[in-house]
């Protein structure tokens, strides 16, 4: 078994296993890019040890693999479906059988070509090959040449240690060449004028190191630039970039960009849009009738049935009669028409026949009515539970591409009660929501202004909803109405503004839980008590997100930033809110809330990445009772937060939870600290770093460190029998907060099923600020089993019970998707 793990078992004769490849190069050379050019790669090792788990997996699967067996299965499956197709006359059944036949055929073809699942998850042994070493060295030379190192050398050395081979590539780049001058040769003066007017965006800079990538980017830029200035039939084949080597002795080169003219025409033609036609129901057949035609804003619309408000539809068309052709405007028109979710497809082409340049827009409508059913298992900060969603959608509600969505949800979930951290109770949730979405701003705007802002994909949403939550401690209902505006100026940047958000919240408390809340009030947890009062919440919210390089992709480094500012109860600064409480018995709130969330995923290679997150927030209440709505507090702990603490149980600051014996629990069973109650707070600061790496197949592994805490503005006081008892600090203090940062670590697995990612994490406390000074480093106390205290009974002292050797239990987290 060990020889299988070491990989050498599968070598034959004098074969050597490729153990490692190294690149030795000056600091100026990007060795990571060179490593991407390896022809052959060493097998992946488990945790950096000389254990080749994927090699073991591959040959384990190969033992039970028979290619002939899968060939026979494929032939039998094809014959079975062919016979079924021949025996039926229903077109619908034939289509279904053909789909299933192809799906089965693809599955067997994959097994025939790539082996069984274990073989696909694993790796065959990587055998040292001198030919591949030379091919890799040649690739290195080509890469260095493309970066301006024209006189480079690459030496290779092979070290043999038993059955293992290590390859060392020594890179000697030589002198780097820089760009001395850039010369344009353009006979067409109109084209030359466009190029020179936009020269500031040039990728080729005088005095910069030579880089072939910049030449490729410059050719692409010129092509797109001219296509945005009317040159419809221009292509990159007309652009040549040549190097003048006459100055090579000084390690400086001259580049010449030549833009050739078409052979037949002799010049590059600018195309001006003569007409625009828009067919709204392309692909629709209507026997015996012709499409109606109607002109609006110089666009000729064609349709069998007048389904759309042309004023609204025209706002998403950025092509104008008499304008020069623009590739960007063409693309934006296609994208914005697709954003309204009204059409199956949007195609735009240009007709250059008969001496005219005509833009043709073709769309085909999606179904007016749509039902969606969704059933599954929900995993949040609790335990898995089933849910069912039903959604009805009506498109083109008022003929202006409006969208009506009505959805209902019902589900169960296992949750730890607000007043307990170890029991699991069933939580029942139900709700109904209705949303109308308009593809424009519903506001007092001039018509010309509406057309100008249409390129920002403006939308207005009116939402109303009712939610119901039933837990053993309480029944909570929430009625909400809101208006939200959304827009984006780029694909990576989006904004939303909610000028009106109103909620009426009612809670019916279990008498026992109500008494427990009163106890919490005496212990200083005032916020939790006020959270369950009947409430009226009004707020205004503005937020923005920046998504760089499609955050979350596994090919390149990406990042994400979300900022949200909320003003609650702003209206009560101008209107006396006392009638809300006196007449309706509802608590009102006045507060400001800011939340910033930054995430970054740094891709190291195809199977390895490091993810970072920094999350912070502050919520300040300026009402008389200094209270916030429960939903507006910050919490810490849980599967998407500090994973070494239970959901919402970390904090505040260094304030100490009660010991289990203080609340009548058995420390042997229940642990040292009692994390029964959630800790709502007004200040949040968290940071995480997570190392992610593929293990095999769809299984990824992760190691992480989380740090953070929550604090309050007012100091929390513990009062016992009318006497204040020192119990740590919950208040945010500039000179103290960094000492109260809780730190946790752990590891986990991610099962990537393509349609979802199931996550299992194990969290261990490293630094617990709630402990006494000198006892806060608690990682040594972590236990996977028997984690609690030792109970001792002393018969000589009236059977006095004492506890010692307290241990910290590890926390197991289940989640859907990555934590950040």
Give a concise summary.
The protein has 820 residues and is α+β, with helices and mostly antiparallel strands. The protein has 16 helices and 34 strands.
Record field, number of beta strands: 34
Distance between the termini: 38 Å
Provide the gyration radius in Å: 34 Å
The number of helices is: 16
Kindly report the average pLDDT value: 88
- The outline comes out as globular
Structural class: alpha+beta
Major sheet characteristics: 17 strands, mixed
**Helix content range:** 10-25%
Unreliable parts? none
| Strand residues, percent | 35-45%
Structure description:
The structure is a single chain. The protein has 16 helices and 34 strands. A hairpin with a 7-residue loop joins strand 5 and strand 6 (252-259). The radius of gyration is 34 Å and the shape is globular. It has a 17-stranded mixed beta sheet that branches. The protein has 820 residues and is an alpha+beta fold.
Write the layout of secondary structure elements.
Blueprint lengths: L1 H5 L10 E8 L6 H5 L17 H11 L3 H20 L4 H24 L2 H5 L8 H17 L6 E9 L2 E9 L5 E9 L2 H9 L14 H16 L11 E6 L7 E8 L15 E5 L12 E5 L2 E5 L6 H5 L12 H13 L3 E9 L6 E8 L3 E10 L6 E11 L7 E13 L9 E14 L8 H7 L5 E12 L3 E17 L2 E17 L1 H12 L3 H5 L4 E14 L9 E11 L9 H7 L2 E2 L2 E15 L2 E14 L45 H4 L12 E14 L2 E13 L6 E3 L2 E3 L16 E11 L4 E11 L14 E2 L6 E5 L5 E5 L3 E2 L1 E6 L4
Parallel strand pairs: 1-3, 4-6, 7-9, 7-11, 19-21, 30-33
Antiparallel strand pairs: 2-3, 5-6, 8-9, 10-11, 12-13, 13-14, 14-15, 15-16, 16-17, 17-18, 18-19, 19-20, 20-22, 22-23, 23-24, 24-25, 25-28, 26-27, 28-29, 29-34, 31-32
